[in-house]
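Hi there,

I know you've been waiting on this one. I reran it after we fixed the sequence typo, so this is the corrected version. Both the input and the resulting structure follow.
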Amino acid sequence: MYSFKNTLLFFSLALSVFTSRVEAQVNTMQVSMDQCISFAIGGSTDSKIALTQKHRSDWQYRSYLAETRPGIMLEATLPAYNNIITNVLQNDGTYKYLPQTNMELYTGLSISQKLGLTGGSVFLRSDLYRFDLLGDTSKTTSYLSSPLYIGINQPLFGFNQYKWKKKIEPALYSESQLQFIENMEEIRVKTVRMFFDALTIQQQLTNLELNSLNNDTLYSIGKARFRIGAISETELMQLELQSLKSNNDLESKKITLKNQLRQLLVYLKIDNSVILQLIIPENAPFVQIDEGIALNEAWKNRPEPLSFNRRLLESQMKLDQAKKESGLNMNLYASYGVTRDAAVISDAFRNFDNQKVATLGLSLPILDWGEAKGRIKMAQAELELENVRIEQEKNAFDQLIRQKVDEFNEQQLQLSLLKKSVQIANKSYNLIKKRYLSSQISLLELYNAQSDKDQAELALIDGIRNYWQLYYEIRQITLYDFIKNSKIEYAATEQ
């Protein structure tokens, strides 16, 4: 019976271990840098924000286009009931306040079109009114129809906002399309940064695991050598201390890596139960970026050139508005239509009377104590300042591209040197470790070699990081793929 219990316990433990290993395998995911970028582009919150901003810009432009097309409006009052005391004209020409009950009905259909060239608008209307005067014993009904009514409302010297919108809105729309691509490229830059933040800690943990194993082995060997008097007690204590320190650092680094990977999981929208294992992107393609091509592509593809032009247009618009609103303003309103009133609705649509309206309004400031002149001078100063700002930003933009290109081209050489340094450091450490075990060198030299090996491996990770970070930053500031030699675009499936 005792043996049977032990057998059951053994199988239970074995099953538990096997299950935990299977679960670990299921929940572990090896991911490369490119895979992380694909996750971020496809499902991160930043990608959804970028897409939402693009959709908002699309609808803003559609709203502008809708403003330039004819608008049709239906208006109606169904009905308006009034029970009031009002002044009523008497037969002798006097007015007398009497109670009155009436009901009004109205319906109208209008078509209007803005005139972008002149800043005015034209309209076509059709109206029908019905008025019922309700009494205690009687009811009087009358109709008023205006089946055709055409008119124009035209500022003669005023500010024409439609003319400026025609220039600015298409520029804003084109700018937003390029801004969307830039925002998506920013996601790549951010993902690369987060990937290497975690990868650096993962490499540190790998080094600590190897060092911990080596230090435990060295400590075990040291105890055996101490027993035969081959090393001193001080050296044995140093081995023990280094072993304890490695194990402590190892546990601390595990927590740090777990937190860093959790941040990456959240950003990539991957289930938190997944354990990520990051793959080092070792094979970096050799790409020599030409500074002239980078500058040329940046000025063709980036939203900044469109933004510079749009900002100048907006400043010029404000100056034009200040000038137009500070001088003579005249507004012409003219309309022509036919109308008829009748007691029967059928009579309201025959034998029409003409109805003409023409109004010319005038506005001219005589004395404003320099207010208008001040607004104009402020708008002129703002335009000059915007020109200076844009020129400064252009120079800074060119300088940024040149700097990034120089750093990237230099980094490729650095990367090859760092790879060679890792090979030398590992070979050196293995040789020094053998020499230490044969008592040819001191423990300090062994630890120095171990530290050099770790630093070289971390420096290589940092070098790979700088390579890809710079490459994706250059992609972002030029919106050009220098590996594929093509302009960067995002298809609907990627959005």
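Quick highlight: Residues 1-25 have pLDDT under 50 and may be disordered.

Best,
R. S.
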